[in-house]
Each structure stands twice: as C-alpha cells, then as structure tokens.
Design a protein that fits this description.
Length: 320
Amino acid sequence: MATVLVLVPTADGAPDKVALQTLTLGAQLAAGGDVHALVLSDDAVAAGLGAWGATSVHVAKHPALDTPAPDAAARVLGDLADSLGAAFVVGPGTEEGNTILARTAARVGLPFAANCVAVTPGSPVTVTRSRWGGSLLEEAAIHADRAVLTLAAHVIEAVQTGGSAPVEAFTPRLDDADLAVRVVGRVPAPAGGVSLSDARVVVSGGRGAGSAEGFAPIVELASLLGAAVGCSRAVTIAGWRPHTEQVGQTGTKIAPELYVAAGISGATQHLAGAKGAKRILAINKDPEAPIMTAADYAVIGDMAEVVPAISAEIRRRRGA
Ligand SMILES: Cc1cc2nc3c(=O)[nH]c(=O)nc-3n(C[C@H](O)[C@H](O)[C@H](O)COP(=O)(O)OP(=O)(O)OC[C@H]3O[C@@H](n4cnc5c(N)ncnc54)[C@H](O)[C@@H]3O)c2cc1C
C-alpha cells in the first residue's frame, strides 16, 4: 500500500483526459492505499474525481493559480506531497503536467521521470519512458524515497470506479518568487485558415527558406492546395513564423494525406511530429538530407525555384 498524489489539471471546467488516466495509474500504484487528487482552483471539477479513483480531493484556492503559474503549482504540489507523506507524485505527461512535475522535483533535488508508459513499484521504482517523440523506450530506475513521474498520454485507459471522495479546499502559501513564471497575456491564434493538426495537406518550410520573406512561396502553395502552413523549429527560433505552425516533438503532431517539407533536414525531433503523414514530399538541395529516408517522393533542388514552379503548374492546369 502506498500514498499517491495525482495532479489533475483542468481546462474549461473539465479535467484533463490524460489526468484521468493518471488517476487510474495512481489507484494501481496505491494498491489499496490513498489516492489524493490535487486540483488548482477549479471546484467544479473536484467533486467528480472520486468517480475516477481519487479517495480524497484537495482544491488549492489562490488567485495566482487561476492562470498557469508553473512554479506556484509546483510548490503547492510539493508542499501537499510533504504533508501527506506521498510515496508517488504523478501527473499527466502533457506539456502542462511535465512543466509542473519537473519543477516539483527540481525544487527538492528529486529525480523526475517524464512520459512513463509503465511503472513498477518497488525499491527502486522502475519505469519505462517514452523518449525522443516516441521513437525510443528507456528503462530507468528511480532511486529516491519519493517517485515523481508523469504518465505518457493514452497508454492506459481511464477507468471509472464510481466512487466518491471528500473535497477539501485550502489556501496554499506562495511567495513572489513562486510567481516569477506566469501567464500575463494571451494572443489568440489567427482566425480562419486550416488547422495544422487536422489538415489533409500540410506545406512546411525549414531553414532552407532563408528568411521570413522566403516563406511567401510556401504560403502561396499552401493556399493553392487548401493546405495548412507548417515549419521547423529552426524557423520559429529565427522568428520567421509563429510557434503555432511548428511541426515536431515540441510543436504540433500532424497526420495529413500529404506532407510537403521544403528546406527541412528531417531531424528526429521534426519527424516525430510528421510521422503520422501518409505521404511525404521532400524538397531539398541535399540528396543526403535525413528527410530522404522518410520521404515517399523527393525533388532535389532549390526550394526558391521548385516551390513556385509547383504553384505555377497547378495554376496552369487549373487554367488560372
Ligand atoms: C529537445 C528538442 C526538441 C526539438 N523539437 C523540434 C520540433 O518540434 N520541430 C522541429 O522542427 N525541430 C525540433 N528540434 C530541432 C531539430 O533538432 C532541428 O534542429 C530542426 O528541425 C532543424 O530545422 P531545419 O530542418 O529547418 O534546419 P536545418 O537542419 O538547418 O536544415 C535545413 C535544410 O534545408 C536544406 N536547404 C538549405 N537551403 C535550401 C534551399 N534553398 N532549397 C532547398 N533546401 C535547402 C538543407 O540541405 C537542409 O537539409 C528540437 C530539438 C531539440 C533538442
């Protein structure tokens, strides 16, 4: 039997789906012990978590927690874990869950195992972790009195237990230092256009585009094909395109019928986001670029010439 504390992030008045899967993992790890759930601010969600395996629910109420503030959330989670004597502190392997749990561990010098696909209790606790965008599975042991880990998304099904759990609200202690990282504003994604994650065709550019202006032919081809525009991380880091267009491990995972990758080398972290594509057309000056091993079709040439030539041919065939 073990005491388990599960972080349950919420959005729009509903618990994160992966967090419900994490509650199921929590119940397995507790093996009859207590499964505590921590919710930040959202009372409405708290009441329903008993039905997903929580035996007690704690709601941290503080104005600083109404918008994402990962250091503050990490402190609340860590302090609660101390007061409960939790042997496991677990959360969903989402961007938010990993951000908070990594900080929870780092604050007290504990190891952190992100994106676990299997967890075996013991001394030490052993885990299998999904790494490099799912292209590598790592076996690891957590040598610590408290295992801090996240569960990779959708590797186990959330099981409804139909139970109920008492809900206790509390006001956590937070200092200014805990609020150093917080959301201070939001920029809405541009309206209209085709959503990258759902697009049937995605046309992406990489560093080979050369500049923000060098993306004009990519945007034009995407528009002709009714496609979404994508890009590599080299491009977002250079500030040529917004992060919302980044394809890859730290960007959007896409699954189009056709992925056109122009001036993109095909780094593992990029392909981790593009491996759901049914067909890949690579346009690259370098016939040895790694993307060629993933490509179904390739055009070896300068994208500044090849991409406009494709657009011109499409227009010609449409008689425009
Ligand atoms: C933890 C981590 C996470 C990461 N996450 C991501 C991610 O989510 N997405 C991502 O994309 N990357 C990610 N990266 C970065 C990744 O490793 C690569 O650095 C990045 O993908 C390279 O971008 P690129 O292919 O545009 O640039 P480069 O690797 O510089 O490749 C440019 C390519 O363009 C070709 N080229 C140059 N000029 C032309 C031209 N005129 N015409 C045609 N071809 C031309 C070159 O031959 C080359 O193949 C991540 C890295 C790390 C460490």
